[in-house]
Amino acid sequence: MMPRAKYLACRAVASVLMLAGAAAAAGPPIVASAASLRHVFPELMHTWATAGGVPPEVSFGSSGNLYRQITQGAPFELFLSADEAQAFKLVREGRTEGRGAIYGVGRLVLLVPRHSRLALDASLEDLGRAIDDRRMRRFAIANPAHAPYGRAAREALSRAALWPRLAESGRLLLAENAAQAVQFALSRGADGGLVPHALALTGRVSREARYTLIDASIHRPIAQRMVLLSRAGDETRELFRFLAGPEARRIFERFGFAAPGAGSQ
What we know:
Layout: H1 4-25, E1 30-34, H2 41-50, E2 57-61, H3 63-71, E3 78-80, H4 85-92, E4 101-106, E5 108-113, H5 125-132, E6 139-142, H6 148-159, H7 163-169, E7 172-175, H8 178-186, E8 193-196, H9 197-200, H10 203-208, E9 209-213, E10 222-228, H11 234-243, H12 246-254
Parallel strand pairs: 1-2, 1-3, 6-7
Antiparallel strand pairs: 3-10, 4-10, 5-8, 5-9
């Protein structure tokens, strides 16, 4: 039999390990969020904290890059994607608790900085003319390879017969994510871009640029879905319920995200 002193020492070690595990489980929610939510998150989290919620640790990036980090073992517990595709890939791979929920529907805008000579034209016709008469130097979008708003921008430009002309002329500025696309569009070397409506509503952008909503019918809907990942703890599940609830929805709508349609969850 194990000597009593050794037995008590093992019990003490086991207790410490159990307490450490409990402390880890009770840690803050670890969240991966699309860059298009960077400016809405502070208000969401203020409301969440006011209700007694634990402030999460949030990493922002393009949805494609965040998806890749999750599949490579990043310790995220909740993923807010800028589209449904990346979220549903995780669902199919068995990495989530259920199918999640749509938290909002994004819109795309033509953003024109005040130094630009581009017209604020939702049809994008003036953009084509600006390529010909050299009023337009560079035009920014998020990279379609891994950013949902970049894919929507490419679809809109293709529908307007502008994608090949921009891509082949070297005038496209491809940003790592939607937030960087806004930065590129506002830079002195660019004349505009197609970016998320939510990011065009922020104080700095509204001071430095004008925008107009693009017709949502010229690109596929940008339904933004969040999913709980399999490692999610209780605090993260509570955060998910808050983000899917009516109070968070009012905040999302105020920041430019349309409410999901009936039956779209």
